[in-house]
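Why do we bother with a discrete structure alphabet at all? Because it lets us treat a fold like text: something you can write down, compare, and reason about line by line. To make this less abstract, here is a complete entry for Putative 4-hydroxy-4-methyl-2-oxoglutarate aldolase. Read it the way you would read a sentence in a foreign language you are learning: slowly, and without expecting to understand everything at once.
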Amino acid sequence: MGSQETSTASIQVLCEFGSATVYEAQGARGALDSGIKPIHPDMRVAGRAVTVDVRPGDNLMLHYAMLKVKSGDVLVVDAKGFLEAGPWGDVFTEQAVRQGVAGLVINGAVRDARSIIEMGFPVFCRGLCIKGTGKNQPGKLNVPVCIGDVQINPGDIVIGDQDGVVVVRQDEVEDVIRSSRAREEKEAMFRAQIRGGATTVELLGLEETLRRLNLD
């Protein structure tokens, strides 16, 4: 199996674990803030990040990025959290679907939400806005960007679902897969023990903490 195939397979494994498990498995790191949500709860995204740094209210760099993005990539756009314009809409979505783009994560707003949902294209954003944008300002492609306190580098792996979005460094993917698998196995054991009558206090060893706080 080639490196590209291995990478694609690993991305799919991370997607199946889900964002919350991956976040916990890598030491509670890499979660974008809770303001970034899918525009439909069934949306899931997984792929390699192509990062775009844009000026608020301008989408020229998105037009340029669509000339460079490859099938399976996730566009990760820092629009500086600006919510009074929607730099992404149904026309971009049509092109993204045709090119096999895996999805969009944008620190900003989008528009044409119903059309995007109907096309089945995963979009994670901070809000919706009907207002349009200019197409004049320069930006940057494939540079490190920050959303909240999380830095996303080109090529990092982005995993998103109803719970939120988490970023995995590309050089840590296999370690995170192993940790995620171990976490899933541990939680499966917990659930089995709870079905047998155990409590979360017992399973997590919280008795002493409760006694110390006089919680009888």
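What the structure line is telling us, in plain words: The CA atoms of residues 94 and 119 lie 8 Å apart. The chain has a mean pLDDT of 95.
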